[in-house]
Amino acid sequence: MRKVIVSMNITLNGFMASADGALDWHFPFWDGEMSACISQQLDTADTILLGRRSYQVMADYWPCAARDPLANPTDASIARRMNSYRKIVFSNTLEQASWQNTRIMGGDIGNKILALKQQPGADMIIFGSGSIVQSFMRQGLIDEYMLWVHPVILQEGMPLFKDIRYNTNLQLLQSKAFSTGVVILYYKTRLRVVKSSV
């Protein structure tokens, strides 16, 4: 069965964005080593899952990045795959999608994702898209987390783990440290634990 994998940049204190939604805190840490890691992750997938806001940011960036004559081979390869892979954007307000190979999906997300998991194909990756990640968490739809923990502590921000309804046990699959101080923690979802009210 296909897996849903979350790939998310977070601060040491668990924020996925600053209070105003900015991501500039993680840009100084990005380097070629991390690009190579993203490239390896894309090798295992064929579908990218996005919320509306993340979709619009990426749809503005990746088509232009693919035409950048100064891009190194790894970044050029990532751009080509981001453009060619199937994208599913979850939105009830977006009316049309200009980024190639994009499908807009609304309504009952849970059942639609369960159906997609049953279809043949490679894994599905969620990049960013905090509201979609949180919705998927609540519905038990996430199979693995790839958390890019940055050596940054923000005073305020948007927490990744918000409004959690169940305790969830995770299994650490592996970890990887970069020279920039960023550490990736790869977790597999093992068991959702419902706490008794008595």
Automatic annotation (TrEMBL):
<dbReference type="InterPro" id="IPR050765">
    <property type="entry name" value="Riboflavin_Biosynth_HTPR"/>
</dbReference>
<dbReference type="InterPro" id="IPR002734">
    <property type="entry name" value="RibDG_C"/>
</dbReference>
<protein>
    <submittedName>
        <fullName>Dihydrofolate reductase</fullName>
    </submittedName>
</protein>
<dbReference type="GO" id="GO:0009231">
    <property type="term" value="P:riboflavin biosynthetic process"/>
</dbReference>
<dbReference type="Pfam" id="PF01872">
    <property type="entry name" value="RibD_C"/>
</dbReference>
<dbReference type="InterPro" id="IPR024072">
    <property type="entry name" value="DHFR-like_dom_sf"/>
</dbReference>
<feature type="domain" description="Bacterial bifunctional deaminase-reductase C-terminal">
    <location>
        <begin position="2"/>
        <end position="183"/>
    </location>
</feature>
<dbReference type="GO" id="GO:0008703">
    <property type="term" value="F:5-amino-6-(5-phosphoribosylamino)uracil reductase activity"/>
</dbReference>
